[in-house]
Amino acid sequence: MGMIGLYKALPEQEIKQLAEGKLDAGEVISTSGEQLDIDKAWQGIHYALTGELIGGEQPLSYVVPMIDGQGLDLGDFGAFYLYPAQVQATAEAIKNFTQAEFAALFAKYDPLQEEVYPVTAEDDAEEFLAYLYQYFTDIQTYYQNVAATGKGVVFYIV
Question: What global pTM score does this model have?
């Protein structure tokens, strides 16, 4: 199966309660709501945008948020939250991000050479780039929609 990246949109109050430890992340993400599945593309997208496995320059590091200080206890990999203002900043930063810009960062940081998950030795660079970009465009749309509602986001891996 692998490690699948998922986003869950939540009202600001729930994000604050998660951050304060007043809500259990597992219970919150199991409820219905605006969710996005980016398959195994999460680390490849993050690395292509930031050149880092975790962290990196904001707001591009918020696209697949793996942020020290904004982590939650959840399963083997944990979860990370973004406040609505962070979602808004990210949505604004990536709304006009083109395939050419994404490809230029992909080439600059080279997730294939660095063997970033889920890369294998048999992967073709163009196919891997297309795979990542497909999910990146899903994230662009998702962040625009979530930002428009004033919600925050929890990102987690299962």
Answer: 0.94
